[in-house]
Amino acid sequence: MVFANLLFLYVFMALCFICYYISKRTVYRNVVLVIFSLLFYAFGEPVYVFLLLFSVTVNFLAGLYIDKFRESKTGFVLTGLTLFFDIGVLVGFKYTGFFIENINAVSGLDLPVPPDDIMPIGISFFTFQIISYILDCYWGKIEVQRNWFKLLMYISLFPQLIAGPIVRYSTIQNQIDNRTITPADITDGIARIAIGLGKKVILANNLSTIVDSLFSVGSLGSLSVAGTWYGVIVYAMQVYFDFSGYSDIAIGLGRMFGFRFDENFRYPFVSKNITEFWQRWHISLGSFFRDYLLYVTIFGKRRQYLNLFLVWFCTGFWHGASWNYIIWGLYFGFFILIERLIGNKRLKKIPAAVSHIYSLLVITVGFGIFYFEDIGQLGTFLGNLVGANGNKLTDHISTISMASNCWLLLACVICCLPIIPWIKKKYKELPKSPAFIYLRTAASIFIFLLSSVLLVNATNNPFIYWHF
Amino acid sequence: MADYINDNELDELNEIYRQKLENQKHHGKKSKASDNEPPKTEKPAKKEKPAKQDKPVKEEKPVKEEKPVKEEKAAKDSGDEENKKKNGYLPHIISISVSAAVFLTVAVLMLVLPRPTESELENRKLTEFPTFSWEAYWSGEFNEQISEYYNDTVPYRDDFKRLGAAFRSLFGINIEGNAIVGPVEQLKPEESAVTTASTKPIAIVTPAPKDDNSPVPNSKPDNSETTAPKPETTDKNETTAPKPETTTVTTTAAPATTPAPMFSTPSDPDVEVLMNEASNIVYNSGGVLHAGTLYNGHRENAEYFAASVAGLKNRINADLYFMPILTQNTFVTPSQLNKGVYTEQADATYLSNLVKENAEVVDIFDALAAHADEDIFFLRDTHWQQLGAYYAAQQFAKQADVPYPALSEYTKKQRDSIGSIYTFTQYEGLAGVYEDFTYYIPPNDFTVDYYDSSYNYLFTYPLMPENDYSENGFYSLYMVADDYIKHITTDVKNGRKLVVLKDDYLSAAVPCLTSSFEEIFVIDIRHCDFNAADFINEQGATDVLLGLTMSNALGEVGSYIDYLQ
Description:
The complex is a heterodimer. By secondary structure, chain A is mainly α.
């Protein structure tokens, strides 16, 4: 089930809220959340819900024993085995086909390739949550969870189960048993859900129509230089609104249930360099790799660049079992390496305008790499960007598309800018004024209803990160 | 404002809070995180307290020397704090109530209001509630279909779709000047007749056969004799295109064929034209939204095309078939919208008469007319559905005497699609208006190698890559893209090798021929950089199928066949 779906919004979510708020005690509310989370997952993956339960059980038991033998070698071995299991499940489902395809291509063998659709939804996200739990247990950063049901709730919590954010156990461990919900939490949550839904349905879905028409297989070759740039810029915004919209809904739902999830996006397109971009884009993934891979000196302390390579290889590979994602990760890793070699002080001396243009160019081209899984098409795309394919500077279709979507594009650009934080900073009292609260509620209802109208018969609008 | 407290009051409240903490410590109470320490979960709650209440600066001030605090004052202040908190929450509570009321009202209405079963707007039956089976449940299909049913059959869904389209129309400005052009009479053929002036030099010197036997439908005067271009003698060498080698060989004695029963789509006096831009048209007919490209053919290139076909025939060792492809202009579009001097079918007959000496004509009119009441064409796209292609290819298979599987042997699938006219025009009324794209997966085994336009191997890929499907570019489901040349090797063992020379349309027919030929080469004549005649011979092809729409055959695309020799 996806969030941008009328069945989810008006049946599942409605029932869930009713049951949740009828239950007064936290323990009952936890039961409601677990039941609805499993229903949520089982709706799309009736079989794999058992995999989820099995994985939680294994990690629950592992956590207990790791905690018990933390100081000994047994704890180390147990941690290793548990990680091997978790990563093994992820690799088994997500990357087997990719590996076999490449083995076949290199060796000329004809090994059977498993179909793409066997991957359990959201496996990349909940596996990473489990890994963070196990490693934090081993490092003693958290208290081990001794209640299987509560660990299940942490892993399966439906707002973040499918597509993140990757919530650390440490973030919500206190909230599992003790959480308060104020009326302000609920209105904040409503507003956040409406914003997320609007980003997805009003902005991202309509941007995707533009991208599809420009980048569909047949038309890419005839696309002009301007048309290709236009297409990839639109795609970058589409991914941003799609994914950050999902995160907004997840955070909003969490807020209404009394949980505080960390932010996952902070206006990434205003970054002045690529390092900053990754501190603003998919923050929970970046911080995961930072804390669990970059600072773990696998290659030795002096080989930080190899660690950097590993982190960005994994970042790319995590997104999908395809070479373009690996290239995409290493592409950003390359620029981060360059920035690290240049140094922060020197980077800050670069004029702001130049920095912004540099980062936007790198980010935008990066999204092109992200889009084209077919390497041949990726080559065409890159050639198109610089006119190397003999393509024209402009083309009719792109021009018409730009004109007929100009207001939408303008709205998207505005929504990419941190205008709301700026207003909140400038007028600190504004968010607390009753007028603002009423206005925000009216806007939320309007966005919610408008999104609902646009969702009628929109049967094919999954979130992009759903696949990951 | 009454809802807020000033700094002094805040200091006092902080004092009381600290005092309480101290007292609890003195009483030796075990400090629980959930009770005493402000847990993370409470921070946002504080944030929402009335203004200034949670100023961190104030909270971090060093604790002043403790003043004697009277319990009564503390209790009184505590009560005030509660009241203020309640007052501060009042706007939130009102907001929640209003939001919940709206949300629940919509949720209940969606449950209790009758759900439509058909869409007038899209002229289709809506998704039905699925039948339960364990197999469907465990595969996830059952739940997915419930979701589809719920989303597709929203009460008043057509109105909501229109509302959505109206909203999308606000996204930008239309630089093409798409406008509602009002009554259909403005589009009468005589007012929009195409010029007969040839824009392309013609090499043919042989008089064109008359098409007296291909009367123009709709009671238009058959003015072929008067308007058909006289043979021109301009040498094609003057242009960039090479002269066909056998330009005068074949078309001299093209006898008139038995006229096909002329078919005319009924005129629709109530048709409402919503947009007419160049040849792209959007109209309402019978309460259904249609969009398409009007036929705008002209015959002056017919002889040149026929000569090219003759040239091709003379150079190859295979049987050559020519399929003049008929579109929705022949079967769907209300007759009075026809812009051309001739109808598509009249031109097809005319061209067939010219070509048939050198190529066996595959007349698909009867094959399609027999199924005109089925969904053989899209409503809002220029292509035919694969069902139409299936019937057309069936006629070809019959003439070529090759096996042809029944439709029931294919795996039928359906996806949503947005017609190409929306992509071409961005006409707001088509935004988000989906229709079913139905395709059929062939029953047999085969592999498909893809080559570039110079026939350099690129990759091996599925014939119908479903994973690459997109609602807008749905026709690329058929062999990815036109600019690749494909070589299909099937499990059929009959020694027959087919080369398909095509434009867009035959893409949908190729999957219908995988059970008929041992090998199939698919070449879009717009994307071929080598001598196709030599290629056909080198590959040992036994059959060549040339299939083009009339617009293409009689337009610029038709001349490409000449360049390929």
